[in-house]
């Protein structure tokens, strides 16, 4: 801090001195006193002789002096109009007492001398670039040469320039800039060796502040109009690379290689690729070669994207192969190269091949293999940055190709194996996300095994998973569950083989994972089962068509011959559907196992719903009564043993009733057994209201409507074993009477517990619900449900509503009014049938 304060004070004093001398210099110029103007200008420039300022503060002082030099140059130009030649001025300024002011003045007058045409441009510039060697202090010398470079920019004998011809040619311009560059680079490199070793880090920062002064020469070379590729490849590039390699300074090599790559045209880089790549292994081990390689490959990739013809040139020059060879050579020569740098080089190479050769999958595999060989023996060393770069490398091919294709590359698994489990999990999640985003279908057993091998951290347990909360697990497993729907095979048999393989991997996970993935797995199985049933129905339809054709009296044999080819596709489809000898019964058995395993997670409500869905499929699509009964039996057992919450019991019972009501495959004995169990469950519910509603719902089990397809006049699917709809009016009435008894019991319970007030009206919504069930059955033509029976109930309900009218809540009142409107609509639609109803 003390040193900074002293430097700031010194800069302040130097700045004041510059202003003072500049004032007297301008005063002398106004008085046309050349000698005094030179004396004060030399004194002003003398402030730049300091070694005490850092490059940043020295730059502030330099810019102040630079602005004043503009006034001096204008004065020198006026002196020429007064009869004083610039040659005389050029000789005169050389008498300045100190070297640094003398050289600044010589540059100022020399540039005016060239502009006036008093001498050959090449001669003056050569003289100046040689004279400036007199200043060997790094900071002072760099700024002096930067001033020379900037002032001479428009005076170079470039092609098409007014200073070309007798003043020199493009070779002289290039030679001047290269000479100045090499001298500046030597000064820049020398800075690291000055001062104590403990200040090395500070000096490196100061050198970084000065690097643009050195690179300015390369910028001016690249902007020369006469710079051709022949001149660049024959003279400029060899001298540049020689200087870069010979300086043996990491900072200089890093910056200058980047300056060469970024400064010169892409076409030059493409044509001189061998020379550039051959210099890389000769650089110091501390140079970030991955950044240099990445810059070069990214520039060529953008060049190819802007001009399609460049792709062909890259192929002709075998650019990809040369990059692979160069990276391998660098890794071999610099055995201690950090893993992160090595991976970044191959990541840049992957970007290059993906941008230039997106259709060459073998290039992707080759990059992965080269990276794996480069990391062999040392791995990533626990470097988080290296892992991040490796994830980026592995992710690049997934952006333009489906995950299955990429994962099938033989060099992909070894690189994935280098990742830590946590990073492997992130990569696995990316694979799953890509699969979903691209809609990739995984259609072979081998691909499924490979996919689950890669995403193992998402489905299997590990010690470091203990810190995951339920929300994190759910987010991961939902992605896995969605991915299961992408496992789509061409035949149902193969589909079930794939699902069995997926299940084998999923069951390695914890119950917290299975409750999210098993339902998706089961519904994938149901989808495959429907495909299997459709194929079997197609086979049956084909067989029926064959039988009809063969029954024709005329030409039975010819018709059979014509029918055989037509039946072939159906038979082939059936054979495909059979797959690995899978049939509906074995598929449903597999689904039963999945549902029971889900129940053990435990996830009883999910398992119960799955059992009911499978029961309906077994009944209405497969026609397997015993399996459908088994599904219901397991659902009932789960209801009794695992569903404890009263709200869940109500929900589960509603699902059971709804599913059983839509099943037509059961014989009378089996249906009675299931219906009696449901009725028993309804009576055992905790709340009276739940008992009432469950009893009403259970009454529908005794009265089924025809299947929807048949009711709509469509041709019903021929399901083997389907029974006619159940129509038992006596059981319907018994169920509704039980509901009325429950309501009466609820009313008595309220009265007995002295809760008659406002709470005494809580049984009224149940009465209104029962009325609507009565009206439903009346409309359906249930024998025992007459208008008189319904009217008796309406009178009872009306009486109850009148009694508790003051306590009636708005929802119940609205419900009753809607029921009254419904009755009026019924009477309007069929006056004869509903004439006796009066609400």
TrEMBL record:
One of its GO terms (biological process) is retrograde transport, endosome to Golgi. The keyword Protein transport applies. It is found in: Membrane. The keyword Membrane applies. InterPro entries: Vps35 (IPR005378), Vps35_C (IPR042491). One of its GO terms (cellular component) is retromer, cargo-selective complex. Keywords: Membrane, Protein transport, Transport. Its main location: membrane. It is a peripheral membrane protein. Residues 540-567 are annotated as: Disordered. Pfam families: Vps35. Residues 540-554 have a biased composition (Low complexity). Plays a role in vesicular protein sorting. Belongs to the VPS35 family. This is Vacuolar protein sorting-associated protein 35.
